[in-house]
Amino acid sequence: MRRHCRLWWPKQLLTDQELPSPCRVLLGWFVTCSPLTFDIVVAFTCSEVLLSSSNPSLEDIIHDTHGNMPTMLEDKSVFSVLGLCIVDPTSNGLIAEAEYDKRKLSDSGNNLAEGCTSLYKKKNECRSCSSLQHESLRKSSQSFFGKSNWVLLMFDSTEQNDARSRGVPRLHHIHWNGVTMSDYDVHVIVYETPSYGDHHFSLGNLGSNEEAKPSIKNPKWVDELHKKKQFVELDTVIMAINCATSAKRIFETLAVPRRSLRQLSIFSMFLIIIGHLFSKFIASFSTVVYIALQFCQAHVKYKSESWMHMTLANIFRTAWINIQIKCCQILYWPIFLQDKDLRSRSCVEYAEKAAMHRHSMWSTLFVDILLGNLVGWPLLHNSESICLSIVNFTHGFSTFLRSGCVWLMGDPAGFKLNAELANVLGIFSLNAIQIWSTLWIFVGFITNYIIQGLAILGIICGFTAFAAMIIDMIVLATLHVSILHRLISLVYSSQIQALAALWRLFSGRKWNPLRQRLDSFDYTVKQHIVGSLLFTPLILLLPTTSVFYIFFSITETTINLICVLIEVIISVIHATPYVKILLWLVRPQRFPSGIWFEICGSRSNVSPEDGVTDEMNSSKESVHLKDFNRKKSSILVSFLHSNYLSIGKVSLPHYRSVLLGVSGSSIYKVAYGIVIGKRMQSLRGTLLPSPMPWMSLPYKEYWCLCHDSLIACFR
């Protein structure tokens, strides 16, 4: 049975001409998912001269590089030496380059010839591959990966007619578990190496953990299909591709000795000193703010059991929740800034997500302060005119309430109401409105100062604190409407409950509170007579109570909707991913969602049979591979591309938590509660994000935390 091999080849190796020498070492990952299918992910190539000049051994370098990879990739595959990529000297277009490489190898030494192993004598072992491999490479690959897995690629551009696929190597043969494989199909996939800040690959959406669960249950056969083992380990392959740049950087850092402090330039040393001084200054300033916030928190906690504190906390509940959120954002910035998992930085995808998460708090805070200044400064400069407008609006609102009550005391819309009950409810409402209007005359003298205080609050604390205080001020200014609505709703709901109970009496039913159901019950004649005497006046007085209840319910619901709308705006400001939106506008490639392959062409390859005879002329420090009988195997060349998320798919998942509690059932409950006169639960503060737990650390430890987080950013 034919085997299938997918060779993932970096695109820059096609254009950068990284094969100036006749032999390059391939480093990357072997990914196996079935006995007949395997993937070879080439991360980068390295010259043998660099490996021979490195101080640590190759096995130590590979082990350290593998140890810096993400844990998920480390569990599924191993970073190792994949094999060799050589220039085919039989190619007509590369003969001159091969002659140049012979002279270059002769001048640089006999590293390749001296390090070659002896020819294998067994039939299943390829003598050309064993003679080409450096002894240290062979040993490190076998000892690190566990078995003899080796590939030999040949760089021959004369066979490739497509300009885009020119430079794709030809797979000469494969050693898999010590056996030379000759019967296989090759799929060469050219990918552009991911880099941080540029692009990366991903099989799914960026915020897969934020996706909503499907409302429709999948069929049984779909669940069974997902349980089957996949024959393509694309998750591991894509993760390995995303780690290719980091693996190359770590490998070169370990192979090439670091520069000492004396070799650093003056400009680099100056930047290091400036970074340390800046870190100390910001850490000290943050510690001062931390001490001030801790002092305020201790004072509030000490006064939390007093009656005045509880009353103020209930009145200004929305502002208090928003201030807690703002304080936690200020306190937790070193926690968000530091890297919790250093190994995850090796994967570009994980590094991108971690960076967006770290900078989300800063972007939200910056936009909040910016919007607060855009609203606060005009409000501060036009406070007098705005104060006059507010006074006129409150006067007009009081006039609207008075005229509405007077209208209800007459014959509203032609309905004949009970005059006595309408006069009682109307006079009571008018007196409450008049008392509240008289109190607001004194508030009008300090309205200008209140507006200036709100403007300063928006400039310093941001737009969300300003909007939260506006909500609390609206609730405080319409407190008389809320009180009247609750009192009238109490009368209305009592009438509705009494009428419902009397109706059950007439129908011969009784409510069973233990079983929560209606049971049949035989009432006496006296009970029916008393019920009739009570039912008649209640049903006749219900229209009068209903019109007052409807009037104040509409007014109270309108006020609540305005407060909920402002609260939704606050939640949207907190939930908007400003960093993601800005990065999407600048570079959409940083938000991949799925991959696709562009087929460039296919061609036939030849692979060695078992009875291969190759020769190596070590006296001339060059390698000659003779032509021999080969089997044809198909080669497919394609380019790897990514699909990208739209701006809606990037931002919409973050807004699901804003209206998480709003559903059809909740709207039905609210509407049903309004109809039966049930007291509506206040939604004030429920749509805001929950504040994080209060941080309580020693001052010195907090300073060290801030300092270390900033120092890590300059590394």
UniProtKB/TrEMBL annotation:
Keywords: Membrane, Transmembrane, Transmembrane helix
Pfam families per record: Gpi1
Listed GO biological process terms: GPI anchor biosynthetic process
Parts of the chain that traverse the membrane: 266-293, 361-380, 387-409, 421-442, 454-477, 527-552, 558-586
Domain of life: Eukaryota
UniProt GO cellular component terms: membrane
This protein's record includes keyword Disulfide bond: no
Protein name: N-acetylglucosaminyl-phosphatidylinositol biosynthetic protein gpi1 isoform X2
The organism of origin for this protein: Arachis duranensis
